[in-house]
Input
Amino acid sequence: VQLVESGGGSVQAGGSLRLSCATSGGSYSRYCMAWFRQAPGKEREGVANIDSDGIADYADSVKGRSTVSQDNAKNTLYLQMNSLKPEDTAMYLCAAARPRSGGYCYPPYEFNYWGQGTQVTVS
Output
């Protein structure tokens, strides 16, 4: 499966961005997906994911400022980020995991597929 992120950019603190991750290919009609980010010199951090019931999980650092959603018809994952802070500056990566039996997505996940990332810079 191929993952292609878009929507990153440079914004001022307090601004908003909407990231997208389009998926294509693969053996499954739907993959379990999540957003991660990695800042220079820091470890990769899980940002948000969403399960088959539509329940989202967020890192404490973005909770209340971000919304993750998934359009299954378009095989696209989104991340709406508001009230951006300089500490949100990072490469944002989309990841995909194979679904469980029956095509369901519930944690824990094993993310085997990664996109190239989209850069978010907040100043």
Q: What stands out?
A: Residues 7 and 19 are 4 Å apart (CA to CA). The longest strand covers residues 17-24. The chain has a mean pLDDT of 95.
